[in-house]
Amino acid sequence: MPLARRLRVVLLVGILASASASASACVDEEEGGASAASAASGEEAPDCGAAPDAIIHQRACPLALVCPTVFRYGLGCPGPIAAEGDYEPGERCVLDQLASGAPGWILAEGGCGGEYERLSLHVVATGEAMLSVELVERCTAADPEACECPQGRSEWSSLDACGLRSPAYFAACLGAATQAERVACMTPENWITGCTAAAPRCTES
Questions:
Q1: Pairing mode, if any, of strands 70-71 and 104-110?
Q2: Mind listing the pLDDT tens digit for each residue in 125-168?
Q3: Which of 102, 93, 105, 106 is nearest to 125 (CA)?
Q4: How far apart are alpha carbons 151 and 53 in whole angstroms?
């Protein structure tokens, strides 16, 4: 084959190879772009129940969790208070704190079956507290939709300003002699005297 013809063939092969590589790169870019767009859009995130802004702001207050989290009595679920004996250490801590009237954060959690409640009480002044409640619907076979939310699906109360029983009430609770009396003293509904929806408040102003 003459040299000139051989050079034309080599040049033509090079051009075809370059065109093929460019076309392949374009296809890869298009497929990659479609994949990225699909990943970015994804499926709609499940509604797991975000806390209302008022409760988020309230929980941002610089109030320390003054006692270990205690069991949430009052929901018809058995708690750790025994027929004989005393309060759990965390329960006695909560009653001591409420009897003192000092500011602080108290947290009670508990529930039966697939529902679980977290009750948050911010004592902001003697006889005054901010109350919020989160009801968590846990993942169960009866409600597979709840499984979309790893921590459960939450429903929230309003943020309420509540009056508290007198320090003397909580001091008397520390000496409760029977199981029924101790359970009553650790039931949050018995700590408060009335509530109304309110704006966040950290301490006495």
A1: parallel
A2: 999 999 999 988 776 656 665 567 766 777 888 899 999 999 99
A3: 102
A4: 19
